Amino acid sequence: MKFAKTFQKVLSEETLPPEWVDKAIQYKALKKIINKTVTELESVGVSRDEMTIDYEISKLQRRMRPVLRMNVSPLAESLIKGKLDSLGYKYNIKPLQTQETEDLDEVLEETDELQNERLVSSLHSDSGTINNDDVTPNKSESTLSSQTSAPPSMVKDSSVYKEPALPTIIHEIDDDESFLDQASVQTSIVASVADYLSTPLAREPTSVSVSSLMTALNPFDDKPFYEITVSLHEDAKFFQTLYEEIEALNDFSDERENEIMQWVEKIASIVAHASSPDVKKNDLYVWRQIFQIYIDSQIFFSTIERSAGANSNAVSRIRYGKFLEKIEEEQLVTRFKQKESLAGFMEFKELNESILKVANFQTMNIMAISKILKKFDKRTHFKSKQMFPELIQRSEQLNILQNSMGRDLCTIMTNRLLNIVPQVEDYTCPICCSVAYKPIRLNCGHLFCVRCLVKLQRKGEDRCPLCRQDVVMKADEGNLDVSLMEYLKLYFPKEVKIKQAENEKEIFKEQFGSVVDPDAKACVIV
Ligand SMILES: [Zn+2]
Ligand SMILES: [Zn+2]
Question: Is 518 exposed, middle or buried (0-12, 13-18, 19+ CB in 10 A)?
Answer without folding.
Answer: exposed
